Protein backbone atom coordinates (compact mmCIF):
# COMPACT_ATOMS: atom_id res chain seq x y z
CA UNK A 1 0.00 0.00 0.00
CA UNK A 2 1.07 3.49 -0.77
CA UNK A 3 1.11 5.00 2.68
CA UNK A 4 2.91 2.27 4.57
CA UNK A 5 6.20 3.99 3.77
CA UNK A 6 5.01 7.39 5.01
CA UNK A 7 5.32 6.49 8.65
CA UNK A 8 9.11 6.45 8.59
CA UNK A 9 9.89 9.52 6.53
CA UNK A 10 8.01 12.27 4.70
CA UNK A 11 7.05 11.37 1.14
CA UNK A 12 8.05 13.48 -1.79
CA UNK A 13 5.07 13.74 -4.07
CA UNK A 14 1.34 13.24 -3.78
CA UNK A 15 -1.26 13.46 -6.54
CA UNK A 16 -4.54 15.00 -5.37
CA UNK A 17 -7.66 14.13 -7.35
CA UNK A 18 -11.00 15.69 -6.41
CA UNK A 19 -13.75 13.47 -7.77
CA UNK A 20 -17.50 13.66 -8.18
CA UNK A 21 -19.29 10.87 -10.03
CA UNK A 22 -16.18 9.82 -11.93
CA UNK A 23 -16.46 6.06 -11.59
CA UNK A 24 -15.90 5.54 -15.33
CA UNK A 25 -12.47 7.16 -15.55
CA UNK A 26 -10.96 7.33 -12.06
CA UNK A 27 -9.71 3.73 -11.91
CA UNK A 28 -7.67 4.06 -15.06
CA UNK A 29 -6.16 7.38 -13.90
CA UNK A 30 -5.14 5.87 -10.52
CA UNK A 31 -3.57 2.82 -12.19
CA UNK A 32 -1.47 4.98 -14.50
CA UNK A 33 -0.29 7.12 -11.58
CA UNK A 34 0.59 4.10 -9.43
CA UNK A 35 2.59 2.64 -12.33
CA UNK A 36 4.73 5.78 -12.20
CA UNK A 37 5.19 5.37 -8.45
CA UNK A 38 3.10 8.31 -7.23
CA UNK A 39 1.04 8.36 -4.07
CA UNK A 40 -2.56 9.15 -4.89
CA UNK A 41 -5.32 10.60 -2.73
CA UNK A 42 -8.83 10.88 -4.12
CA UNK A 43 -11.35 13.15 -2.46
CA UNK A 44 -14.79 11.79 -3.19
CA UNK A 45 -17.18 14.72 -2.92
CA UNK A 46 -20.16 12.59 -1.95
CA UNK A 47 -20.56 10.90 -5.34
CA UNK A 48 -23.76 9.08 -6.14
CA UNK A 49 -21.98 6.46 -8.26
CA UNK A 50 -19.28 3.86 -7.45
CA UNK A 51 -16.36 6.32 -7.40
CA UNK A 52 -15.39 5.50 -3.78
CA UNK A 53 -15.59 1.75 -4.38
CA UNK A 54 -13.38 1.94 -7.47
CA UNK A 55 -10.83 4.17 -5.70
CA UNK A 56 -10.53 1.59 -2.91
CA UNK A 57 -10.26 -1.28 -5.41
CA UNK A 58 -7.34 0.49 -7.09
CA UNK A 59 -5.49 1.00 -3.80
CA UNK A 60 -5.50 4.80 -3.64
CA UNK A 61 -6.10 6.68 -0.41
CA UNK A 62 -9.73 7.74 -0.21
CA UNK A 63 -11.08 10.76 1.64
CA UNK A 64 -14.85 10.88 1.58
CA UNK A 65 -16.89 14.03 2.08
CA UNK A 66 -20.10 13.30 3.96
CA UNK A 67 -21.90 15.96 1.90
CA UNK A 68 -21.30 17.54 -1.49
CA UNK A 69 -19.13 20.63 -0.93
CA UNK A 70 -17.87 21.46 -4.42
CA UNK A 71 -14.60 21.25 -6.33
CA UNK A 72 -12.67 23.86 -4.32
CA UNK A 73 -13.46 22.38 -0.92
CA UNK A 74 -12.55 18.89 -2.19
CA UNK A 75 -9.21 20.23 -3.40
CA UNK A 76 -8.58 21.90 -0.06
CA UNK A 77 -9.29 18.62 1.76
CA UNK A 78 -6.51 17.14 -0.36
CA UNK A 79 -4.17 20.00 0.54
CA UNK A 80 -4.93 19.44 4.23
CA UNK A 81 -4.13 15.76 3.84
CA UNK A 82 -0.84 16.60 2.11
CA UNK A 83 0.12 19.01 4.91
CA UNK A 84 -0.83 16.43 7.54
CA UNK A 85 1.28 13.76 5.82
CA UNK A 86 4.19 16.17 5.36
CA UNK A 87 4.40 16.02 1.56
CA UNK A 88 6.81 18.51 0.05
CA UNK A 89 5.38 18.50 -3.46
CA UNK A 90 1.88 17.96 -4.70
CA UNK A 91 0.19 17.68 -8.08
CA UNK A 92 -3.51 18.35 -8.44
CA UNK A 93 -5.40 16.93 -11.38
CA UNK A 94 -8.91 16.00 -12.47
CA UNK A 95 -10.06 12.40 -12.39
CA UNK A 96 -12.35 12.61 -15.41
CA UNK A 97 -9.64 11.87 -17.95
CA UNK A 98 -9.07 15.48 -18.99
CA UNK A 99 -5.57 15.60 -17.50
CA UNK A 100 -3.04 13.05 -18.72
CA UNK A 101 -1.22 11.19 -15.92
CA UNK A 102 1.85 11.06 -18.20
CA UNK A 103 2.41 14.77 -17.60
CA UNK A 104 2.45 14.62 -13.79
CA UNK A 105 6.19 14.00 -13.81
CA UNK A 106 6.67 16.89 -16.25
CA UNK A 107 5.01 19.25 -13.77
CA UNK A 108 7.03 17.96 -10.80
CA UNK A 109 10.30 18.15 -12.71
CA UNK A 110 9.49 21.74 -13.65
CA UNK A 111 9.17 22.64 -9.95
CA UNK A 112 12.82 21.65 -9.42
CA UNK A 113 14.32 22.57 -12.78
CA UNK A 114 12.83 26.06 -12.84
CA UNK A 115 13.11 26.56 -9.06
CA UNK A 116 9.52 27.74 -8.69
CA UNK A 117 6.69 27.26 -6.20
CA UNK A 118 3.81 26.65 -8.58
CA UNK A 119 3.71 25.06 -12.04
CA UNK A 120 0.63 25.30 -14.25
CA UNK A 121 -0.03 22.84 -17.06
CA UNK A 122 -0.82 24.85 -20.18
CA UNK A 123 -3.02 23.09 -22.73
CA UNK A 124 -2.42 25.69 -25.45
CA UNK A 125 1.36 25.37 -25.59
CA UNK A 126 1.37 21.82 -26.92
CA UNK A 127 -0.05 20.26 -30.05
CA UNK A 128 -2.33 17.33 -29.27
CA UNK A 129 -4.67 18.95 -26.78
CA UNK A 130 -8.38 19.11 -27.54
CA UNK A 131 -9.74 22.19 -29.24
CA UNK A 132 -11.10 24.51 -26.58
CA UNK A 133 -14.51 25.95 -27.60
CA UNK A 134 -14.32 29.60 -28.64
CA UNK A 135 -16.39 31.00 -25.78
CA UNK A 136 -14.21 29.22 -23.21
CA UNK A 137 -11.03 30.36 -24.89
CA UNK A 138 -12.43 33.90 -24.78
CA UNK A 139 -13.04 33.51 -21.03
CA UNK A 140 -9.48 32.23 -20.53
CA UNK A 141 -8.09 35.18 -22.51
CA UNK A 142 -10.15 37.59 -20.42
CA UNK A 143 -8.87 36.13 -17.13
CA UNK A 144 -5.35 36.07 -18.53
CA UNK A 145 -5.58 39.77 -19.46
CA UNK A 146 -7.04 40.69 -16.06
CA UNK A 147 -4.28 38.79 -14.27
CA UNK A 148 -1.65 40.55 -16.34
CA UNK A 149 -3.27 43.95 -15.79
CA UNK A 150 -3.63 43.60 -12.04
CA UNK A 151 -0.54 41.62 -11.13
CA UNK A 152 1.86 41.65 -14.06
CA UNK A 153 1.64 37.86 -14.17
CA UNK A 154 1.59 36.42 -17.70
CA UNK A 155 -0.34 33.16 -17.69
CA UNK A 156 -1.86 31.89 -20.91
CA UNK A 157 -4.03 29.17 -19.33
CA UNK A 158 -5.16 30.57 -15.97
CA UNK A 159 -8.14 28.20 -15.66
CA UNK A 160 -5.99 25.08 -15.79
CA UNK A 161 -6.52 22.87 -12.76
CA UNK A 162 -3.50 20.70 -13.66
CA UNK A 163 -0.87 22.13 -11.32
CA UNK A 164 2.13 21.20 -9.22
CA UNK A 165 2.69 22.99 -5.92
CA UNK A 166 5.31 23.15 -3.24
CA UNK A 167 4.56 22.88 0.46
CA UNK A 168 4.81 26.64 1.02
CA UNK A 169 1.95 27.16 -1.48
CA UNK A 170 -0.01 24.34 0.17
CA UNK A 171 0.25 26.10 3.51
CA UNK A 172 -1.26 29.19 1.94
CA UNK A 173 -3.99 27.15 0.22
CA UNK A 174 -5.24 25.63 3.47
CA UNK A 175 -5.86 29.10 4.90
CA UNK A 176 -9.26 30.81 4.89
CA UNK A 177 -8.10 32.99 1.98
CA UNK A 178 -8.35 30.08 -0.48
CA UNK A 179 -11.41 30.78 -2.66
CA UNK A 180 -12.90 27.34 -2.12
CA UNK A 181 -16.07 28.03 -4.07
CA UNK A 182 -14.26 28.85 -7.33
CA UNK A 183 -10.46 28.56 -7.24
CA UNK A 184 -9.38 29.89 -10.63
CA UNK A 185 -7.40 32.89 -11.90
CA UNK A 186 -8.23 34.62 -8.60
CA UNK A 187 -6.01 32.28 -6.58
CA UNK A 188 -3.15 32.87 -9.02
CA UNK A 189 -3.40 36.58 -8.32
CA UNK A 190 -3.17 35.91 -4.58
CA UNK A 191 -0.19 33.60 -5.15
CA UNK A 192 1.52 36.29 -7.15
CA UNK A 193 0.86 38.83 -4.40
CA UNK A 194 2.26 36.34 -1.87
CA UNK A 195 5.48 36.32 -3.90
CA UNK A 196 5.31 32.72 -5.09
CA UNK A 197 7.17 31.98 -8.31
CA UNK A 198 4.80 30.67 -11.00
CA UNK A 199 5.52 29.21 -14.44
CA UNK A 200 3.61 27.36 -17.13
CA UNK A 201 4.69 24.19 -18.90
CA UNK A 202 3.09 22.55 -21.93
CA UNK A 203 0.80 19.59 -21.29
CA UNK A 204 -1.74 17.68 -23.33
CA UNK A 205 -5.33 17.84 -22.14
CA UNK A 206 -8.28 15.87 -23.43
CA UNK A 207 -11.88 16.88 -23.56
CA UNK A 208 -13.63 16.22 -20.26
CA UNK A 209 -15.90 13.18 -20.21
CA UNK A 210 -17.99 14.58 -17.37
CA UNK A 211 -20.81 17.13 -17.36
CA UNK A 212 -19.33 20.63 -17.46
CA UNK A 213 -20.17 22.99 -14.59
CA UNK A 214 -20.12 25.79 -17.18
CA UNK A 215 -22.95 24.44 -19.30
CA UNK A 216 -25.91 26.56 -20.34
CA UNK A 217 -26.10 30.26 -21.13
CA UNK A 218 -26.21 31.98 -17.72
CA UNK A 219 -23.73 29.84 -15.82
CA UNK A 220 -20.64 30.92 -17.83
CA UNK A 221 -21.71 34.59 -17.56
CA UNK A 222 -22.24 34.22 -13.81
CA UNK A 223 -18.88 32.45 -13.46
CA UNK A 224 -16.94 35.09 -15.41
CA UNK A 225 -18.58 37.83 -13.33
CA UNK A 226 -17.69 36.00 -10.11
CA UNK A 227 -14.05 35.52 -11.08
CA UNK A 228 -13.79 39.13 -12.26
CA UNK A 229 -15.18 40.32 -8.91
CA UNK A 230 -12.95 37.87 -7.04
CA UNK A 231 -9.86 39.18 -8.88
CA UNK A 232 -10.79 42.73 -7.91
CA UNK A 233 -11.30 41.71 -4.27
CA UNK A 234 -8.01 39.81 -4.42
CA UNK A 235 -6.21 43.07 -5.19
CA UNK A 236 -7.15 44.44 -1.78
CA UNK A 237 -7.20 41.29 0.35
CA UNK A 238 -4.90 41.51 3.35
CA UNK A 239 -2.41 38.66 3.00
CA UNK A 240 -0.58 36.77 5.74
CA UNK A 241 3.20 36.71 6.01
CA UNK A 242 4.80 33.78 4.22
CA UNK A 243 5.89 31.13 6.70
CA UNK A 244 8.97 30.17 4.68
CA UNK A 245 10.19 33.77 4.89
CA UNK A 246 10.24 33.78 8.72
CA UNK B 1 -53.51 56.18 10.40
CA UNK B 2 -56.98 54.70 10.09
CA UNK B 3 -58.45 52.28 12.69
CA UNK B 4 -58.27 49.52 10.06
CA UNK B 5 -54.52 50.05 9.74
CA UNK B 6 -54.13 49.91 13.54
CA UNK B 7 -56.03 46.64 13.66
CA UNK B 8 -53.96 45.20 10.80
CA UNK B 9 -50.67 46.06 12.56
CA UNK B 10 -51.86 44.60 15.88
CA UNK B 11 -53.01 41.38 14.16
CA UNK B 12 -49.68 41.14 12.31
CA UNK B 13 -47.75 41.71 15.54
CA UNK B 14 -49.79 39.11 17.44
CA UNK B 15 -49.49 36.53 14.66
CA UNK B 16 -45.72 36.90 14.38
CA UNK B 17 -45.37 36.80 18.17
CA UNK B 18 -47.36 33.55 18.32
CA UNK B 19 -45.36 32.08 15.43
CA UNK B 20 -42.00 32.95 17.00
CA UNK B 21 -43.08 31.68 20.44
CA UNK B 22 -44.23 28.39 18.89
CA UNK B 23 -40.92 28.01 17.03
CA UNK B 24 -38.99 28.63 20.27
CA UNK B 25 -41.14 26.08 22.13
CA UNK B 26 -40.43 23.47 19.44
CA UNK B 27 -36.71 24.33 19.52
CA UNK B 28 -36.83 25.14 15.79
CA UNK B 29 -35.23 28.56 16.12
CA UNK B 30 -32.15 29.65 18.03
CA UNK B 31 -32.77 32.03 20.93
CA UNK B 32 -30.29 34.59 19.60
CA UNK B 33 -32.26 34.92 16.35
CA UNK B 34 -35.67 34.71 18.03
CA UNK B 35 -35.00 37.81 20.16
CA UNK B 36 -34.89 39.88 17.00
CA UNK B 37 -38.24 38.54 15.78
CA UNK B 38 -39.85 39.05 19.18
CA UNK B 39 -38.63 42.66 19.10
CA UNK B 40 -40.09 43.13 15.60
CA UNK B 41 -43.44 41.64 16.71
CA UNK B 42 -43.56 43.93 19.75
CA UNK B 43 -42.71 46.86 17.50
CA UNK B 44 -45.78 46.08 15.34
CA UNK B 45 -47.95 45.91 18.47
CA UNK B 46 -46.74 49.21 19.88
CA UNK B 47 -46.92 51.29 16.70
CA UNK B 48 -50.49 52.51 17.48
CA UNK B 49 -49.27 53.77 20.88
CA UNK B 50 -46.63 56.05 19.40
CA UNK B 51 -48.35 57.35 16.27
CA UNK B 52 -47.60 60.97 17.15
CA UNK B 53 -43.91 60.17 17.58
CA UNK B 54 -43.74 58.37 14.21
CA UNK B 55 -45.64 61.20 12.52
CA UNK B 56 -43.08 63.68 13.87
CA UNK B 57 -40.15 61.51 12.75
CA UNK B 58 -41.77 61.10 9.31
CA UNK B 59 -42.22 64.85 8.88
CA UNK B 60 -38.60 65.38 9.93
CA UNK B 61 -37.30 63.21 7.06
CA UNK B 62 -39.95 64.26 4.56
CA UNK B 63 -42.31 61.27 4.84
CA UNK B 64 -45.81 62.54 5.48
CA UNK B 65 -47.77 59.35 6.11
CA UNK B 66 -46.88 57.12 9.12
CA UNK B 67 -47.68 54.03 7.04
CA UNK B 68 -45.10 55.12 4.44
CA UNK B 69 -42.61 55.62 7.24
CA UNK B 70 -43.42 52.08 8.39
CA UNK B 71 -42.67 50.66 4.93
CA UNK B 72 -39.49 52.74 4.67
CA UNK B 73 -38.33 51.45 8.05
CA UNK B 74 -39.31 47.91 7.16
CA UNK B 75 -37.27 48.06 3.91
CA UNK B 76 -34.16 49.24 5.74
CA UNK B 77 -34.73 46.66 8.48
CA UNK B 78 -35.09 43.84 5.95
CA UNK B 79 -31.93 44.96 4.15
CA UNK B 80 -29.95 44.88 7.42
CA UNK B 81 -31.48 41.51 8.34
CA UNK B 82 -30.48 40.04 4.96
CA UNK B 83 -26.94 41.29 5.47
CA UNK B 84 -26.80 39.77 8.93
CA UNK B 85 -28.11 36.43 7.68
CA UNK B 86 -25.62 36.46 4.79
CA UNK B 87 -22.85 36.88 7.36
CA UNK B 88 -24.27 34.08 9.51
CA UNK B 89 -24.61 31.86 6.43
CA UNK B 90 -20.99 32.47 5.41
CA UNK B 91 -19.74 31.61 8.90
CA UNK B 92 -21.95 28.51 8.92
CA UNK B 93 -20.55 27.41 5.52
CA UNK B 94 -16.96 27.74 6.76
CA UNK B 95 -17.83 25.71 9.86
CA UNK B 96 -19.56 23.04 7.78
CA UNK B 97 -16.60 22.91 5.40
CA UNK B 98 -14.15 22.43 8.28
CA UNK B 99 -16.34 19.69 9.75
CA UNK B 100 -16.66 17.82 6.44
CA UNK B 101 -12.91 18.06 5.76
CA UNK B 102 -11.95 16.98 9.28
CA UNK B 103 -14.42 14.08 9.14
CA UNK B 104 -12.93 12.89 5.84
CA UNK B 105 -9.38 13.04 7.24
CA UNK B 106 -10.35 11.33 10.50
CA UNK B 107 -12.27 8.57 8.72
CA UNK B 108 -9.20 7.80 6.67
CA UNK B 109 -7.04 7.68 9.82
CA UNK B 110 -9.50 5.45 11.65
CA UNK B 111 -9.67 3.04 8.71
CA UNK B 112 -5.87 2.81 8.59
CA UNK B 113 -5.60 2.31 12.35
CA UNK B 114 -8.26 -0.40 12.24
CA UNK B 115 -6.32 -2.22 9.52
CA UNK B 116 -3.09 -1.95 11.54
CA UNK B 117 -4.89 -3.22 14.64
CA UNK B 118 -6.32 -6.18 12.71
CA UNK B 119 -2.83 -7.08 11.42
CA UNK B 120 -1.37 -6.79 14.94
CA UNK B 121 -4.16 -8.99 16.36
CA UNK B 122 -3.54 -11.58 13.64
CA UNK B 123 0.20 -11.57 14.40
CA UNK B 124 -0.54 -11.88 18.13
CA UNK B 125 -2.85 -14.83 17.53
CA UNK B 126 -0.17 -16.62 15.54
Structural description of this entry:
- The complex is a heterodimer of chains A (246) and B (126).
- With 246 residues, chain A is α/β, with parallel strands linked by helices.
- Chain A has one domain: Spore Coat Polysaccharide Biosynthesis Protein SpsA, Chain A (Alpha-Beta Complex).
- Chain A contains eight helices and seven strands; from the N terminus they run βαβαβαβαβαβααβα.
- In chain A, strands 3-2-1-4-6-5-7 form a seven-stranded mixed beta sheet, sandwiched between helices.
- In chain A, β1, α1 (23-35) and β2 (39-44) form a beta-alpha-beta unit.
- The longest helix of chain A is centred in the last third of the chain and has 19 residues, at 218-236.
- Chain B has one domain (3-125).
- The longest helix of chain B has 60 residues, at 66-125.
Features:
heterodimer; A: 246 residues; alpha/beta; Spore Coat Polysaccharide Biosynthesis Protein SpsA, Chain A; seven-stranded mixed β-sheet; disordered N terminus; B: 126 residues; mainly alpha
